[in-house]
Amino acid sequence: MSSLMDAVDVDPRSVEPQAQAVVTVARTRKDPELLGLSLRLLAATFRARWDDSSARPLLDEAVRITRRHSVWDVAARVLASRASVLHDLGDARAAARDLDAAIVAMSRAPEVQPAERARFLGRVGLSLAIVEQHAGRLEESEQRYRSLLAAGGLEPRSAAIATNNLALVLAERGEYEEAIRTAEAAVALATSQVPTLEAPLVQTRAWIAVRAGRLQEGMADFERSARAYLDAGIPLGEYYTEYADAMTDLRLLPEAAAAAARAVDELAAAGLGLMLTEAQLRLARIRLLTERHEEAGELADEAARAARQQHRATWAARAQLIGVEARLQAGTAGLEQLAVARRAAARLEGSGDLHSAVEAYLVAGRVALDLSRPRSAMPALTRARALAGRGQVLVRLRGRLAGALAERAAGRPAAVLAECRAGLRDLAVHRSALPTIELRALASGHGAELGEIGLGVVLAEASPARTLAWMERTRAAALSTRLPFSDVPLADRLPAATSGPPEAVRAAAASPRGADVRVPVVDWSLGHDGVPAMVALPQVPGIAATRAALDGRTLVEFGRFAGRLVAVVVEPRRARIVELGPVEDIAAELRPLLFALRRLANPRGSTAAEAARISADLRIARLRALLVAPLGVDPRDELVVVPVGLLHGVPWSCLHDGPLAQAPSATFWVRTRRSAQARAGEGGTVLVAGPDLAGAREEVEALRAVHAGARVLSGEHARAQDVLTALADADLAHLACHGSPRADNPMFSSLRLADGPVTVQELHGAGVAPHRLVLASCHAGADVAYAGDEVLGFVSAMLAQGTAGAVASIAAVPDVAAVDLMLELHRGVRRGLTLARALHEARGRIDRDSPEGFVNWCTFSAHGAA
């Protein structure tokens, strides 16, 4: 029997007829021990094909028979097998009960040899740890894994799985360095002793490396994993699923969606129903993230039907929950969805799935509030808050949100603020443990709604000081602490030339950069237990300190509440709150303005250019009326603008007649002001001309005449390592290069240099921070706003590293026409003007009657105080 069980993993279909024959013999002989073993073997053939719904009744029968006849040795093994099935079906509590029962049954089987008993208990202990892990009880699962590994005696397969899963838990807790070391140990064990596990364990290491910011290493491991799957003839569905998770973590959603869709296709073709359902749920979640609500709902409904057919009640509840979320976000949720969410919440809580249960109760509460049923919402929100207290930090954050919603519905503003503050403190700790700037920015999205709810409370107090302080609490927090950077030369970090990734990787990675992703290694060390010893909320300057740093300028910081905009205006002698209109009104004007500017940057005939100009002038006038006129500022005032959300894409320079600078937050502007005063005049000037850009060399040569002694890098000399080295300590840097934007994750936007593109992530990871930076390239100023009032892109990444001022365009740049603007800008800088004032003067000399001149007048903006 043991030899047949070993053969199941290799070829389950060939074992099935033999197992059926043994079951028939056992029934004929009425041999309970043989029947229990043969039913377990037959169930294993179904489990190997991911058909748990067929395995479950066989194991149920085996449990009944072996218990009735006191065949405790076999009963223990059957209970352990059924626990695995129950866990796969989503019932964590039932699985844990079976595992506990298996331990008891084994204790009643004295005939089992001590060594075999120890191996069995080790496997059961591993299963219990897995149940704890998947239920979201990470501390408990980590303790179990560590105890099992410390005790020794695990079979190589179990030891490899325990080590691998411990690495996953460590990564979830933010202990990336130990997680990578642990994952490497798991891969080494699999490679030497359990070759069949090598592919999935390398895949785990790839996912952790990506999460840790080591994208180059992670992509190499994903490729290695794919090759191992292909060589073994294993379907690539699970590979694509993990790849989709990694890309989702990086917010590379096109790649994530492509990989998840491929996972669905692969698993459907392989007939792996259980894994297919899980892949459909992942794809539905990605569709939610990309706001394709109808598709998300349809996928979730399909997965829920499949899960019910598979007798997986918990998975069906998870799928139903996504369907409710899709309809809630689309504004079509009704009483039916409220009932579905309540049933799903009860089912998920009963199964022991803490993560999903908290989310389900929160969604049920939201639907009730959306239907104007606060009394119906309160029990769900209260239950979500109570359950979340036992979970990890992101689960606790959802509980804080549920608590804030409940307190707001009850009309208790002080309690609302208390929940919001507590949640944002937890988020600050979590964010500080993340190793890359984009993961930190994405993590801030978990606190976006807490920030907005709290803003609503402080707005009711009508205090400009408290409103500004609250806005700053949630503004650009991911940028507030510099990450450590690698001092390894960039050239040493580039991937070696290969023949290219396997078809599996090429199909899943729809990135325009493909597998040639160059990202620096980011080393990140945490304090005791993975939490930095001191993690504080960002230090926010008060209005008095902000006003002193403004030195006569006027600060305008925008916020967003209940779909409307609000601004805090800090002037030399007063501060006030200004209520503005709906965000959707701004979007309605901004989209056609940016479209008109794109047409003007590359006009196709005078008629089209004239129509685009008329549209642009109209939209600019309307945006001025919506965003600037209500502020009541003098048109000659110098403004410091802190946008929010889609306002980061507004061409602010053309909306105000005086000088204007932007900043991710008031705190950041104050920091750049201090840096500008401290570093003024230090370093030299660096001028860079990238390849294949009309007028770039002419532009740089003209600027050389303005900056005597400047270092010029052009042609083959404008290579990545040379450019980054030159920029590191420059006082003023000018980059005339092609830019390639990535709106889904701007840290993968790039500038083209002589030896290929260099990403924002590379610039940031290399610690490059010239004092002042001019980016004369398309879209370089188009930083992208994320939930939680975070912003990422070239400009914000440079400011985060210490750059005190930058000039960049939010749109396509008419290359040759920009030369005159750049010359005037640099002449102003040479006279000692700040970038904002120099740009203002330079824009005043542009010929706005030409399409190219008008685009440059509109789209270039200054950032920071230098």
Describe the protein's architecture and organization.
- The protein has 866 residues and is α/β, with parallel strands linked by helices.
- Among the domains are: 1-111, Alpha Horseshoe (Serine Threonine Protein Phosphatase 5, Tetratricopeptide repeat), CATH 1.25.40.10; 660-864, Rossmann fold (3-Layer(aba) Sandwich), CATH 3.40.50.
- 61% of the residues lie in helices and 9% in strands.
- It contains 38 helices and 16 strands.
- An eleven-stranded mixed sheet has the order 3-2-1-4-5-16-15-12-8-6-7, sandwiched between helices. It has a three-stranded antiparallel sheet with strand order 9-10-11.
- The protein is elongated.
- The termini are far apart.
Quick structural gist:
With 866 residues, the protein is α/β, with parallel strands linked by helices.
Please name the CATH topology of the domain at 660-864: Rossmann fold
Mean pLDDT: 86
Radius of gyration: 30 Å
Let me know the number of strands: 16
- Tally of alpha and pi helices: 38
Within the largest sheet, what's the order of strands?
3-2-1-4-5-16-15-12-8-6-7
* Spatial separation of the terminal alpha carbons: 77 Å
CATH structural class of the domain at 660-864: Alpha Beta
- Provide the helix percentage: 55-70%
- Report the uncertain regions: 484-537
InterPro entries: CHAT_dom, TPR-like_helical_dom_sf, TPR_rpt
Domain CHAT: 623-857
Pfam families: CHAT
Protein name: CHAT domain-containing protein
